[in-house]
Amino acid sequence: MKIGLRTPSLKKMVKSRTTGRVKRAMKKSINPIYSKKGIGFVTQPKKAVYNKIYKKTSFSIFDFFKLFK
Predict the structure, then answer these.
(1) N or C: which end of the chain has fewer CB within 10 A?
(2) Residue 44 falls in which region: left (phi positive, over 0), alpha (psi -120 to 50) or beta
(3) Which residue range is the domain that position 49 belongs to?
């Protein structure tokens, strides 16, 4: 598991802001429990715990800019 600074990827940032938004909107229209808070732990507990720890132990370079805002 990564601890510390995450390396930024411009390609992944652009992709997540374009194609991901359309896919999430489609899934939400089909599945009523999709993207509800806390459902990730019910459906995939191992992945949810990993993501929670990863989010708390690593940070992005863009987090520094948020501190000075």
Answers:
(1) C
(2) beta
(3) 40-69
